[in-house]
Design goal:
alpha/beta; Rossmann fold; Spore Coat Polysaccharide Biosynthesis Protein SpsA, Chain A; four-stranded parallel beta sheet; 15 helices; about 35% helix; about 20% strand
Length: about 425
């Protein structure tokens, strides 16, 4: 019994989503594959500016990506790349993700990423598809021109991934040339696939023939040149002309390069200021990014985590009651974001402990915790000793003298910890109101 051959389906598609740049239109085209779409946010900062200035743009981009992430078929990576020259870092990320296909918008993505075509396609981190135009609806007539080069099977995978029953394989060879040996292998495969239409043409003008046939096609999928690229902007003569002149939407594909040992550019960087600015740009958040508390609770439950809020206090009778009431109501009763609240008192002389007990939270005096150790003065003593009386996997501290208390003081700290497991410490900083002198 003859085994029926199947091209491997495309399960994951990765798209670089550039702040105020390309990405959104490709998402709509990628939806037609029925695959998981992975979005990676990138903020490109002009060379003359500090990378830390990218923090605001990164915040805006994360909000945009979270909206896309509400689609069950889309995964938006929470880490946004902030860089002057993002390609190398993004390429390394792609290698770790190992998607079946990376989709780039022809022309605009290269410009936005500040990289040449040759730099991407001479050593692609995964299989690449360059799309010119949009796929507005499911394509019914997909043309896959192929001579039998190394990218022909990828072109077939892409075409079949978009419409299993709408693909026409067009084999083109020059007059007098024998059928390409590599194409014979592909031909044997597609002969077992009756849903694929087979066409054979002999011509010395392959690009013109494809452009003419594009008038009856919704989409053309073709491979780039298999020869070493001599131009920083060329995909090969045929692919270049088809991309410029074809009536239909075009996807040009290139298979991943062989695995090589590549040293990251950052290995030679000695400018610590640049690295600090970059870290700041990528890891500065605003509390409003995490105001959807139900999303945070879902992340917490997915990771099977518990969260404790410890409140250090010293003579805070005027404000401590309001702080406790608000956090219990908003973050424990309305949603189950917090699992416990405790007061860590520094031996207040006013009614701070009495008020906290009345609100139903456990109260501890830090000087009485680990009494065998001589107690020290200061808030730091209260903070570290609170670790001995809290039960959560994540510990949050906020002050109890905050006059304009709001749940964002807590969820703004929790958000990055739940969203990105690599983040282990979050410190809040605030726009404090100015007072007249």
């Amino acid at each position: 019994m003859q085994k029926h051959f199947e091209f491997n389906p495309i399960h994951t598609i990765l798209i670089p989503f550039i702040y105020e740049g390309p990405g959104a239109s490709i998402v709509e085209s990628a939806r037609h594959f029925g695959a998981e779409i992975i979005l990676v946010g990138i903020v490109v900062v002009p060379e003359e500016q500090s990378l830390s200035l990218g923090a605001v743009s990164a915040n805006k981009l994360r909000k945009q990506l979270r909206e896309y992430g509400k689609d069950k078929h889309i995964t938006a990576r929470t880490k946004v790349i902030v860089s002057h020259q993002p390609w190398q870092e993004f390429s390394n990320l792609v290698k770790r993700e190992k998607p079946d296909l990376m989709l780039l918008e022809w022309g605009t993505h290269f410009e936005a990423l500040k990289v040449n075509v040759i730099d991407v396609l001479s050593n692609p981190p995964c299989d690449v598809g360059l799309i010119r135009g949009k796929i507005g609806s499911k394509p019914q007539n997909i043309l896959v021109p192929a001579r039998g080069g190394p990218h022909a099977d990828l072109a077939m995978r892409v075409g079949l991934g978009l419409n299993r029953s709408g693909v026409s394989l067009l084999h083109i060879r020059k007059a007098g040339d024998p059928i390409n040996v590599a194409f014979k292998g592909l031909e044997r495969v597609v002969q077992q696939m009756p849903e694929v239409e087979k066409q054979f043409e002999v011509t010395n003008e392959a690009a013109n023939l494809i452009i003419e046939k594009s008038k009856q096609a919704d989409l053309i999928v073709l491979g780039t040149t298999a020869q070493p690229m001599s131009s920083s902007a060329s995909l090969g003569y045929v692919a270049d002309q088809v991309l410029r002149e074809a009536n239909a939407t075009v996807i040009a594909v290139k298979r991943a390069a062989e695995v090589q040992t590549i040293y990251d550019e950052s290995a030679g960087l000695g400018a610590i200021t640049l690295l600090v600015d970059k870290w700041f740009g990528e890891n500065t958040f605003e509390a409003d990014e995490f105001k959807n508390l139900h999303d945070l609770v879902e992340l917490k439950q997915q990771q099977n985590l518990t969260i404790s809020l410890a409140l250090p206090a010293l003579n805070e009778e005027k404000t401590v009651g309001k702080v406790i009431k608000m956090m219990k109501k908003e973050l424990m009763q309305k949603v189950s974001l917090l699992d416990e609240i405790v007061l860590i008192d520094s031996n207040s002389k006013d009614r701070t402990r009495e008020i906290a007990k009345k609100e139903g939270v456990p109260v501890y005096i830090h000087q009485q915790i680990l009494e065998r150790l001589k107690p020290r003065r200061g808030k730091g003593e209260a903070l570290w000793k609170s670790l001995l009386v809290t039960k959560g996997d994540i510990i949050i501290w906020i002050d109890t003298d905050i006059v304009n208390i709001h749940p964002r003081f807590v969820y703004g700290i929790i958000g990055p910890l739940l969203q990105n497991p690599q983040v282990q410490l979050v410190k809040g900083f605030y726009r404090r109101p100015f007072t007249s002198w």
